[in-house]
Each structure stands twice: as structure tokens, then as C-alpha cells.
Amino acid sequence: MLKKSARYLHELMETESAQLAKLHKIVQDSFDEEALISQRVSEENEKRRPTFGERVADRVAEFGGSWPFIIIFSSMLLGWIAINTFVLINHPFDPYPYILLNLVLSSVAALQAPVIMMSQNRQGVKDRENAANDYVINLKSEIEVRHLHEKIDLMMEEQYHHLFEVQQQQLKMLEELQTELRKLKPESGKK
């Protein structure tokens, strides 16, 4: 009877070990699925190549919002003013109110503004796509966390059930040992 109980306890432990291995595999698969979703999102973003106009708009917006642009543009303005004011004093090609300079500045602003807006619109579309992808990934993560909680709760419930069975089996074994000891006591008293 003791060997049978010990075998049963051993089988319970093996069953519990197998269940833990299954749970570990389920959790690992969930993590792998999450990685696959992240990879799919980044691959979809990389598939769409920007057109020539979009690349130009991005470069113009990038350069137009940088310190080198500000420094170069300020230097050109100061150079224009200096040449027309000090170098070409007698015959400036753009005298003091600098009407030609104003025309050039207005033209640059008129051309640069729509190009920057195109770049910003494209960036806005990319940001919206990234936000939607982030939402999908976050939703998937939330669902997976809920599933993991449920699996852990189930595992704990099963573990408590197994522990209860193990404890019941151990109590039976103790009772059997006590019975065996009681049988041995009268025999040892007879000697």
C-alpha cells in the first residue's frame, strides 16, 4: 500500500511538472506572437517608399529648420545689405529699401512654406499610422497580460488541488504507518 501511495505521489508530481512545462510554452508562444506583431508593423512601415517629391520636401524641411540654414541665410542677408549699402555705394543693384531683397525673401517664404507643409503632412500621416500600430500592440499586450493572469490563476488553482491531493495521500500514508506501528507495538510488548 505504501508503494502504491508513493507511486501515486510521484505521478502527481510528474503531472504538475508537465502542466508547468505546457504553461511555460503557452507564455513563450504569447511573447513570440507579440514580437511577430511588432515585426509586422515595422515591416509595413518600411515597405512604403517615399516618392522623389516627398524626399525633397523632407530634406527642405529638415534643412530649413536647422542652425546651418539660419546661419547661412542670415549671412546672405547681411552680405546683400552690406554689398548694396557699403560696396556699391554709387550704383547699388538694390538700393536702401531693398525691394529686390524683399521680393527674394517673399519668394523663398512662398516656396518654402508649402514644401514644409507637405513634409509635415507626411509626418502626420506616419505619426497616425504609428499611433494606430502602437494601439494594436498595446491592446494585444493588454489581452496577453489578462490571459497570463488567467493562466496563472488556473495554474495556482490546479496546484492547490494537487497539493491538497498530495496532503490527503500523505495523511493516508501516515495513518497506514500508524496502523503498522500499532501492529508492531503489541508484538514488541509480547517479547
Briefly characterize the structure.
The chain is an all-alpha fold. Helices cover 90% and strands 0% of the residues.
Q: What is the general shape?
A: rod-shaped
Number of helices: 4
**What is the typical, i.e. mean, pLDDT?**
82
Give the helix proportion (percent range).
over 70%
Query: Spans of 5+ residues with little confidence (pLDDT < 50)?
Result: none
Proportion of residues in extended strands: under 5%
**Number of strand segments:** 0
Task: Write structural notes for this entry.
With 191 residues, the chain is mostly helical. It has one domain (2-186). It is built from 4 helices and no strands. The protein has helices spanning 2-47, 52-64, 67-87, 99-190. The longest helix has 92 residues, at 99-190. It starts with a helix and ends with a helix. The mean pLDDT is 82.
Secondary structure blueprint with pairings:
Blueprint: H1 2-47, H2 52-64, H3 67-87, H4 99-190
Helix pairs in contact: 1-4, 2-4
Defining traits:
rod-shaped; 191 residues; 4 helices; mainly alpha
